[in-house]
Design goal:
- It is built from four helices and no strands.
- It has 85 residues and is mainly α.
- It has one domain (2-13, 25-72).
- The protein is elongated, with a radius of gyration of 16 Å.
- The relative contact order is 0.18.
- The model is unreliable at 80-85 (pLDDT under 50).
């Protein structure tokens, strides 16, 4: 949830929805804080195969792609149309 909120807060769009568990499942994305604290989700298992930095990497790449999308559509077509409706 923390990573989804980070993406939404930093998105260049006024509305951003983050979907998870789509197009497959690569494991539980644990926060680095929880990893360091040794919470039960931190143990490598069938449900958790990602590195501690995976969440931050997902946020960084998501924001890069959202910025690229915004740059390729500077008028914000779609975003502005929804706001006018």
């Amino acid at each position: 949830m923390e990573y989804q909120l980070d993406i939404k807060a930093e998105s260049p769009f006024s509305r951003t929805a983050v979907a998870e568990l789509t197009n497959g499942y690569c494991g539980y994305v644990i926060t680095e804080h929880a990893w360091k604290a040794g919470s039960y989700e931190a143990h490598l298992a069938g449900s958790s195969k990602l590195a501690p930095a995976a969440g931050s990497m997902i946020v960084t790449e998501s924001l890069r792609l959202l910025s690229l999308l915004r740059t390729s559509n500077p008028a914000g077509t779609g975003d502005a149309a929804r706001e006018e409706a």
